[in-house]
Amino acid sequence: MKFLYDFFPVLLFFAAYKLFDIYVATGVAIGAALLQTLAYRIRTGRFEKMHLLTAGLLLFFGGLTLALRDPTFIKWKPTVINWLFAVAFLGSAWIGERTLVERMMSHAIQVDKPVWSRLNWAWTGFFASMGGANLYVAYSFDEATWVNFKLFGMLGLTLAFVVAQALYLARYMEHENPEGGA
């Protein structure tokens, strides 16, 4: 359910684009991101950083798209978000005692520091690549293809990466023996 909630603005952007155009879709995405941020605040009493970042970037890039009637700006938003994530994961390799991926996942799984480090580098590369892939599609294909890629391509690649990460982590998880041994 949280997954759909987090993708609410992207789903509405996609639907509005299919029904209208890039400008209506951009306005809908801005409104959806602001609504999502407010609803989370009302429900939990706090803001989620990801929602604030997305809403802020949508306001900036979407606002430029609407004000200048140029879809180039909204096409850059996924790249900027992905590259900011890449920088955050990269920086966490040197700042603090634990990498960002370890901070996010260590409550659910215990693995050695080198494994966390490799995962952190994998996420850094993934987000950097996703930002590049978005620009490639935005500048090499028509607008409708980019909109489809924004929803289905980026979502599909993210899901595939998460599955690959789970398979990688499964190698390091301790399996209990039915007789009680390790």
Short description:
With 182 residues, the protein is mainly alpha-helical. The chain is 79% helix and 0% strand. Helix 7 runs antiparallel to helix 8.
Number of strands: 0
Task: Note the total helix count.
Answer: 8
What fraction of residues sit in β-strands? under 5%
User: What class do helices, strands and sheet pairing give?
Assistant: mainly alpha
> What is the mean pLDDT?
92
What series of H and E elements makes up the topology? HHHHHHHH
The biggest beta sheet is recorded as: none
- Measured between the Cα atoms of the first and last residue, the distance is 35 Å
The radius of gyration is: 19 Å
Number of domains: 2
Sum up the overall morphology in one term.
Answer: globular
- Low confidence ranges: none
Q: Tell me the helix content.
A: over 70%
Topology of helices and strands:
Layout: H1 2-6, H2 8-19, H3 22-44, H4 49-68, H5 72-92, H6 100-105, H7 113-140, H8 143-170
